[in-house]
Amino acid sequence: MTASPHRKLLLTLAPLLALAFPTLPAHAQPVANPIATFAGLDKITGRITRFDVYIDETVLFGALEITPRACYSRPSTETQRTSAFLEVDQRSLQGSSKRIFTGWMFADSPALNAVDHAVYDVWLIACKTSTDVPPPGKR
User: Global pTM?
Assistant: First the structure.
């Protein structure tokens, strides 16, 4: 049985196509982490504070309530891209809250989508799998 003309052409061109279109490395799925590490700047005191927050836990930084909903990193074999989705509310003196930020934050681009408040700045540092901070409900 002889090969069709199309098959012969494909077999002839295959090595050339492989050179012209090399395979791109496969990217692994992002790794979901249970903890997000943030840095916060109090512009009045000039103090920078680092703090770990569990996913879906709300912490208070000054008048800001910060709740990370997801924190993703890449495997160590790939270019590091660390991102977190979070919600930030501002608490008033009366105790009510107003949403001032919802979105993605990127550790390698802190100025992109950073929380910029009149008194506080908050940015993502890293995503982690463990911390010295006890999990919610165990404090």
Answer: 0.74
